[in-house]
Design goal:
By secondary structure, this protein is of the alpha/beta class. It has helices spanning 2-29, 33-44, 57-104, 117-128, 140-146, 161-166, 182-195, 210-217, 225-238, 240-250, 253-256, 281-285, 321-331; strands at 110-113, 133-137, 153-155, 174-177, 200-204, 221-223, 259-264, 288-293, 299-301, 314-319.
Length: 335
């Protein structure tokens, strides 16, 4: 950044000095502005042509000053430009190596295929959690545009096994196929499922008919942004307060001061084996249990105080963020 600022400063200084030289030859020697410009140009570039017109003594003194200042500024500018190019190249090389090292350490991460609007929205939410993730984008220009916002952005075709392996799909927890075409998303799902059968895969569908093909390819969840937008618009008319509450709880949580979270009960947790009321989750933590997802069973909504919490249960809970973090620690405690 400093070298780039130096380049800008030197370029401005050269332009100013050129203007001084052109006006100086005009006033001292009575030359036209073009003759003055030509003389300044040959002087600064050290080409060494003869003088445009014979110079008076005052003109030679003035030109000698221009030679010293102008040539020095030009060489400084060339040096600064060289420094900028070298630094830029080094940053790219070391940046790639750093990114490769960070990708090599990824585990239980999420892979987002596509840096479009949907993919970037997913990345923002994962950043907010935060959880480890990386983006695979086939368009190098787009990848570079968003690399400052999403440092782990891999340039490549997500339909290729080699690219998914480079993204450590065997160590990943989930994958989002969010490219702009259903055909690409279907192929990504097929390839990802073959490389990691246990991977949770969520796919974006643009057309209604694409959902069945994506599910047949191995997608666990298929989301259509257009269908969701229509659903949201309709319910904004029919149930505006419900939609507003969900927005605040899921997106604008700082307004409500509450979050909705999913917390897993480990076998060693103090919650395991206790009833909802016996766990004192509401009394001690101020957290409301909205639902319980039993392992391999259906979702149980609005559980009663007598329902028993078992190891492996996923609790859908709502409460203040700091209390939810505390509950996560207790629920996942190993002793």
């Amino acid at each position: 950044m400093r070298a780039l600022r130096n380049v800008k400063f030197l370029a401005i200084a050269i332009v100013v000095l050129m203007a001084i030289g052109i006006l100086g030859f005009h006033w001292i020697e009575g030359w036209s502005l073009f003759d003055g410009f030509y003389m300044v140009l040959t002087t600064f570039t050290t080409i060494g042509y003869q003088e445009v017109h014979p110079l008076s003594h005052a003109g030679r003194v003035f030109n000698a000053s221009l030679i010293g200042a102008g040539v020095a500024l030009v060489f400084l500018l060339i040096g600064s430009l060289t420094q900028v190019m070298i630094e830029s190249e080094l940053q790219q090389v070391f940046g790639r190596r750093k990114m490769e090292r960070e990708i090599g350490r990824l585990k239980d991460h999420y892979i987002i295929c596509g840096a479009g609007r949907v993919g970037r929205s997913v990345a923002h939410e994962l950043q907010r959690k935060p959880v480890p993730y990386l983006i695979i984008e086939g368009d190098e220009a787009k990848a570079e545009r968003y690399r400052g916002e999403f440092p782990l952005t891999l340039v490549g075709d997500a339909t290729q096994e080699a690219v998914l392996k480079q993204a450590r799909i065997d160590q990943a927890r989930g994958l989002v196929a969010a490219t702009t075409t259903d055909a690409s998303n279907t192929y990504i799902v097929l390839t990802a499922r073959a490389l990691n059968p246990k991977l949770k895969i969520i796919a974006r569908a643009s057309e209604e008919d694409a959902e069945k093909y994506l599910r047949a390819a191995g997608a666990d969840v298929v989301v259509s942004p257009y269908a969701f937008a229509g659903f949201r618009i309709a319910h904004s008319f029919l149930r505006p307060h419900v939609v507003d509450f969900i927005d605040v709880a899921m997106v604008q949580q700082e307004r409500l001061g509450l979050e909705i979270e999913e917390i897993r009960i480990s076998a060693a947790s103090v919650f395991a084996g206790k009833t909802v009321s016996g766990s004192k989750i509401r009394q001690d933590l101020g957290v409301i249990v909205l639902a319980i997802k039993r392992a391999g069973g259906p979702m149980q909504y609005n559980p009663s105080s007598h329902d028993v919490l078992e190891a492996g249960d996923e609790l859908i809970v709502m409460g203040p963020p700091e209390q939810l973090r505390k509950m996560e620690e207790i629920a996942g405690a190993t002793g």
